[in-house]
Amino acid sequence: MKKTLIPVALGLAASLGLTTAALADIRLGASISATGPAAFLGDPEAKTLEILVEQLNAAGGIGGENIALVLYDDAGDPNKARTFATRLVEDDEVVAIIGGTTTGTSMSILAVAEDAEIPFISLAGAIDIIDPVKRHTFKTPHTDRMACQKIFEHMQGQGFTGIGLISGTDGFGASMQAQCKDVAGDFGIQIVADETYDPKDADMTAQLTKIRNTAGVQAVLNPGFGQGPSIVTRNYRQLDIGLPFYQSHGVASDGFIELAGADAAEGVRLPGTALLVADLLADDDAQKPVVTAYKAAFEGKTGTPVGTFGGYAHDAFMILTDAIARAGTAEPAAIRDAIEATTGLAGTTGIYSFTATDHLGLDLSAFRMLEISGGKWTLAE
């Protein structure tokens, strides 16, 4: 493979403290929402990629060939994401793309990647990204449909049959709302109250009051991500509704607890990853070595707590570099085939096994049902 001098990052370099790369053999592209409304997701993703590239190159790269990362900050704007994806393909000549912090940016990037026949690994949750299967598109987070199933599985175990739903109207919230409605009946659960809010709203007490006053509501679920669920959580506590409260995997990070406040978040349940409860994993848990190594590397480098979203980027990079190593070449077509042949690869989010009909590669066992207690993540009973 030809050695080429390229920048490690464009646009985001200054904010991440990146430097110009030395001669590099394998060029990977990324479009991440490191600033803007999804920055709490994208910032750790960008930092994770920086850390992993540095680690891999220090260890000799892949077969002696270094990785160079071309990284753009799309600020959560789907139009910018499309522009950057096009630039990554046409100007930067990358062999694969990681990114799409949000569903909207992922859909923009995958359109470009599919046309260019370049492997793309998304970091967003919506099922639409990989269902139906697109030949060159994969993703690392669980789907919103799986999150609904995991939550309803837990609710069913608690004996709940009627719930209230309060969902964000953004792409993630609307998608998960639809998926939850579609699978609720499979678990004997009826959605008896259904409210929505604009993610930019500063108060959701009106919607929560309607849910509280609806007969038959035994628990409440909030599909959403960003700052909206934190506001809903604070309002929920202010109204002293007193019913079990569930959030989505879209807020599975310490940042959510900080935004909502530990007191307001107390008792909130949600499906999350092993990464959030690394210290509670059994020694024989297949994910423990990966989770603890990433946690130590990220926290040691940044001085900030590790989180689910950085873990999505970790797994995307791991899947991609593992595929390149197995393919023995950095040709996009060979990388794509090797990703699809991945099996039993333990990451921070779960253990991945892709097939031609499954470009997520995770099942419900990858989720851990978590509960916030004393401002910390614990395993829910």
Automatic annotation (TrEMBL):
Transmembrane segments: none annotated. It comes from the Bacteria. The keyword Transport applies. GO terms for biological process: amino acid transport. It holds the Pfam family Peripla_BP_6. Gene3D superfamilies: 3.40.50.2300. Keywords: Amino-acid transport, Signal, Transport. Residues 1-24 form the signal peptide. InterPro entries: BCAA_transport, Leu-bd, Leu_Ile_Val-bd, Peripla_BP_I. Residues 26-360 form the Leucine-binding protein domain. CDD domains: PBP1_ABC_RPA1789-like (cd06333). Belongs to the leucine-binding protein family. This is Amino acid/amide ABC transporter substrate-binding protein, HAAT family. It comes from Paracoccus alkenifer. The lineage of its organism: Bacteria, Pseudomonadati, Pseudomonadota, Alphaproteobacteria, Rhodobacterales.
